[in-house]
Design goal:
The chain has 21 helices and two strands. With about 500 residues, it is mainly α. It has a single domain, classed as Up-down Bundle (Sodium/glucose cotransporter). It has a two-stranded antiparallel ribbon. Helix 7 (about 130-160) packs across helix 17.
């Protein structure tokens, strides 16, 4: 298919599945509903009634964690830099033990006190409005470019169908906005079943049939290796020694940040029980296997001798080149629906933060449960409009750069959100100072490096490259610890327990 020439067969299949999930999205308002007042409580609209069992949670968390941009960006990164692009694999292996240990405790704290957001948890633990505001603001700001990147994923497949202009993208997000407004978290939870099934079919078919068409995996890896040798530099089929430290720290830092995002925490708080979360931590690594297979598509592009203007076009170009139009339409629908699920959950998570941690404490402390739900619905629309404007009027690279910063920023909420669940030594002023220094220092490093996710420093003549977000987190924790020691000593002196 030539650029700008509409592939009508693929487009027909794409529209069929898009209409299917749209109908499901509107129907979701009556699925597992809380009765007549289902829309009149933030727990019902924003957390699906806190009643999602193991299977629903598995699909929902998987659906908002493994996004359309993942399916587009991971193969694109592997295509561009080779083995280094596989850091997403250890990251999604490390993350689940972290989820298993931390998230059930966080769920219990939220369930016991009726918390909806990370900001609620922090205020409930520390009683500090400034710290609550800092955590909530970080969550909203970090989420906006993440939603915009779902639009990037959808934009890539719409372009691959031959459609031009911004109208198809805007229409898709208007539909998303309407059924999210109507059904809340139940809409993406129900659609996630279809999305995940479609993605599994697409990837399993691709990893079997594409190598068969190209002469086997040996041919694919040989072609990729030749291309990387021709490029020179740090690219290759295996990691270079200088890549191992940044690879490892990117994986660890990303794993610590992953479940601090409002959308992933929303999926956790919507679970029926702590045991549901533990079971999901055991079963969710099945998605990691899928991610590894998706990443291989980046190598397959070399086997197919594809040349693309933009690395993000690798996956759509591969399907257009090697599969019949109807299957390309099915694959593009899977990727586009894979944008709708996380974008919906992200907008709901951000709306919950706005409602509970901005609107309620500062605008209307007497707001009712029904009032909270109404404010959150309107806020979710505003978040989607903001993301759409963001992607239509700013360069895609800017969205990607901000998303890299978003990971650094959301990682700085980890101490305030998590430490209080396990021990009570830290106080709000120390955690707030740590957050501020980590956020400012990390952002300064990132901007000074041209918004790259890693920073190189020299120690005793040797250079070390480390994930900037992890460096900022270490600085965050050190500042919080030192300040808490000073505050603790000061408090003890005032109490007379320590000589002045």
């Amino acid at each position: 298919m030539m650029d700008g020439q509409i592939n009508w067969t693929a487009l027909g299949v794409f529209i069929f599945f898009f209409v299917l999930v749209t109908v499901m999205g509107f129907a979701a308002s009556r699925w597992q509903s809380g009765g007549a007042n289902k829309g009149a409580h933030l727990d019902e609209w924003g957390l699906g009634g806190r009643n999602f069992g193991t299977w629903i949670t598995w699909f929902l968390v998987g659906g908002d964690f493994y996004t359309a941009y993942t399916v587009i960006a991971v193969p694109a990164l592997v295509y561009a830099v080779g083995a280094y692009g596989f850091f997403a694999l250890p990251y999604t292996i490390i993350v689940y033990p972290i989820v298993f240990v931390i998230m059930p405790k966080l769920w219990k704290a939220a369930h016991r006190a009726g918390h909806v957001t990370a900001g609620d948890v922090v205020y409930g633990r520390y009683g500090s409005r400034p710290l609550e505001f800092a955590i909530a603001l970080t969550g909203v700001v970090a989420t906006m470019p993440y939603i915009a990147l779902q639009l990037v994923g959808m934009e890539v497949v719409i372009k691959a169908l031959g459609l031009t202009g911004e109208l198809p993208l805007a229409a898709a997000f208007v539909i998303l906005a309407l059924y999210t407004y109507s059904a809340g978290l139940r809409a993406p939870a129900l659609i996630a079943f279809v999305k995940d099934l479609m993605i599994y079919i697409v990837v399993l078919v691709a990893v079997v049939l594409v190598p068969m068409k190209l002469g086997g995996y040996g041919t694919v890896f040989a072609a990729a290796n030749e291309a990387f040798i021709a490029k020179g530099g740090a690219t290759g089929l295996i990691l270079k020694p200088q890549q191992m430290l940044p690879f490892a720290t990117l994986a660890l830092g990303s794993a610590l940040a992953a479940f601090m995002y409002p959308h992933t925490l929303t999926g956790i708080f919507a679970a029926k029980s702590a045991d549901t979360i533990r079971k999901n931590a055991v079963f969710l690594p099945a998605y990691t296997v899928l991610l590894g297979l998706i990443a291989l598509l980046g190598f397959m592009a070399y086997g197919a001798k594809l040349v693309v203007k933009n690395n993000n076009d690798v996956v759509p170009a591969l399907f257009n080149a090697l599969f019949p139009s109807w299957f390309s339409g099915f694959a593009f629908a899977a990727i586009a629906i894979g944008a709708l699920v996380p974008a919906a959950v992200m907008s709901i998570g951000a709306a919950n933060l706005f409602t509970r941690n901005f609107w309620k404490p500062y605008v209307n402390p007497a707001v009712t449960h029904a009032g909270e739900a109404k404010v959150a619905k309107i806020a979710s629309l505003m978040v989607k409009v903001g993301a759409l404007v963001f992607i239509l009027f700013l360069p895609t690279k800017f969205a990607l750069d901000l998303q890299l910063l978003g990971g650094l920023w959301i990682l700085q909420t980890f101490p305030a959100v998590v430490f209080g669940v396990f021990f009570r030594w830290f106080r709000a002023p120390a955690l707030l100072a740590g957050w501020a220094v980590g956020l400012a220092g990390g952002s300064w490093l990132a901007f000074s490096d041209g918004i790259k996710p890693v920073h190189t420093f020299v120690l005793a003549g040797d250079s070390y490259t480390v994930y900037t977000g992890l460096l900022a987190l270490v600085l965050n924790v050190v500042v919080a610890t030192v300040l808490q020691l000073l505050l603790g000593a000061s408090a003890a002196q005032k109490d007379g327990s320590v000589p002045a």
